[in-house]
Task: inverse folding
């Protein structure tokens, strides 16, 4: 049975997608059969892995967009296993599409709408060791579907001003989902991302995060690293783009911490 991890924070740009991609790639490198699910309409994870629309002129004429996506699954038109794309050794992807931006509204009247993803996952649980879900920067229906479906939540936070803004609301939502749909849901854990240890503010905020969350914070810190920001443009994970970068080092350290814990 797969361990299902949701990468969640309604705050934008904190490192959710970067973490989902590179933690997933690190798990695959360790021989774990890994499925990454993109449930963000922005489709950043899909694009980051070279599976989404490209940004060059040719691509405008002939956009390379996956034929079927998580949108078809949520709408009930496809089974999850039928929209999986094999990306590389041990690494599969369920792509997203821009249509997902309408899903909140379109699924608004569906009974059991918070549990669509959880039910869809059942058919692939035996095929993977890990399933990672990259959530959008909102606590809407898509993130609720993820929270109802996962065993644990990883919360990336950036060690900048207002890092903890909204985290109380996120923890309350997690508590509610645990109470109603998913009693086994654990927070494990909080990940400090985009950290610049040379900045006094970053060190202070990171101390505050550790004081607030205690043991829930991963020992591993993901440092700010140019290679991590560049890799998406070439459709590569950090291990493909720059194996010697601090980004590769940090995500490798994170995967070791997670594998010890699972
Ligand atoms: N450790 C890092 N060092 C440098 N750049 C990073 C790092 N982590 C993420 N980035 C860059 O910061 C931006 C935001 O990261 P990312 O897309 O992972 O955040 P997100 O939380 O998924 O954003 P959104 O809320 O929009 O989905 C991206 O351009 C990404 O390439
Ligand atoms: Mg993202």
Result:
């Amino acid at each position: 049975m797969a361990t299902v991890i949701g990468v969640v924070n309604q705050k934008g740009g904190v490192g959710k997608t970067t973490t989902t991609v590179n933690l997933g790639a690190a798990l695959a490198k360790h021989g774990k059969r890994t499925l990454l699910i993109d449930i963000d309409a922005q489709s950043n994870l899909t694009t980051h892995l070279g599976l989404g629309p490209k940004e060059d002129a040719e691509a405008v004429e002939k956009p390379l967009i996956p034929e079927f996506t998580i949108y078809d699954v949520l709408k009930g038109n496809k089974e999850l296993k039928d929209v999986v794309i094999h990306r590389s050794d041990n690494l599969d992807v369920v792509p997203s599409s821009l249509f997902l931006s309408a899903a909140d509204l379109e699924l608004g009247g569906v009974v059991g709408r918070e549990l669509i993803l959880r039910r869809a996952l059942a058919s692939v649980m035996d095929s993977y060791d890990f399933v990672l879900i990259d959530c959008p920067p909102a606590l809407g229906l898509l993130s609720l579907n993820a929270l109802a479906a996962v065993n644990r939540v990883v919360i990336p936070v950036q060690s900048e001003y207002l890092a903890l803004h909204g985290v109380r609301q996120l923890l309350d939502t997690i508590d509610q989902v645990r109470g109603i749909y998913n009693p086994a849901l654990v927070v494990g854990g909080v990940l400090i991302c985009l950290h610049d240890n040379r900045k006094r503010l970053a060190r202070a905020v990171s101390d505050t995060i550790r004081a607030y969350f205690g043991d829930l914070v991963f020992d591993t810190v993901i440092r700010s690293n140019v290679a991590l920001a560049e890799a998406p443009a070439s459709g590569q994970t950090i291990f493909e783009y720059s194996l010697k970068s601090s980004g590769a080092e940090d995500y490798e350290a994170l995967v070791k911490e997670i594998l010890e814990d699972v």
User: Anything to note?
Assistant: The beta strands are 3-7, 34-38, 85-88, 91-94, 130-134, 152-158, 186-193. Residues 12-18, 40, 42, 44, 137, 193-194, 222, 224-225, 228-229, 232 surround adenosine-5'-triphosphate (ligand 1) (CB under 6 Å). The first strand starts at residue 3 and ends at 7. The radius of gyration is 17 Å.
